[in-house]
Amino acid sequence: MVNVTRRWWLLVSLSATLSPGLAAPLLQVRRDGDDIRVSAPHLKFLTGKPLERLKDGASVTFLAQLSLSTDVNALAIKRAVDRFIVSYDLWEEKFSVAKTGPDARSISHLSSSAAESWCLENLAVGIDSIPPNKPFWIRLEVRAEEPKDQASVVGESGINLTRLIEVFSNPARSQQPHWEAEAGPVRLQDLKKQGRGARTG
Hints:
Blueprint: H1 6-13, E1 28-32, E2 35-39, H2 48-55, E3 60-69, E4 76-89, E5 94-99, E6 105-110, H3 112-121, E7 125-126, E8 136-144, H4 147-153, E9 154-155, E10 158-159, H5 161-168, E11 178-186, E12 193-194
């Protein structure tokens, strides 16, 4: 009989579900100080129409949300939303990314996979008031921003986080490139706690 370890079950429980037509990645969850962060090496959003636009010389903005819920179908009890502007250098064949908002930062000379990873590295949701032994689900959503979204989210005073959250309260439009991944159940006591690290850029 195969010896099924607790670590194996944890890896299985973190298997992600993705939008139809995309290969399911493993959504990796970790605790970073008082935050939860994720990585998804197999989730590729610098592809398809967004990549075509980038190689045509246009910048593409992606909206991202990381949320926690008590069940896979329950409403979010905590969330973090951010906006990332990606551009592409045709000569160097490298990507640049700028995170907007109060803690704006940017980075350049990245490969596509490094640019995608940087966006997720800079997306964190707080875990205060979450009991260590209480199971929860975590969901990652990434969408290519459309003009209608930009008009409501970006104003003279900067990014309107309330409007950005409202964008994710509605399903993505049929023609809007979007990616989703979920993992759970996860418990804080099962996650290795790491010291809060500085974000580059």
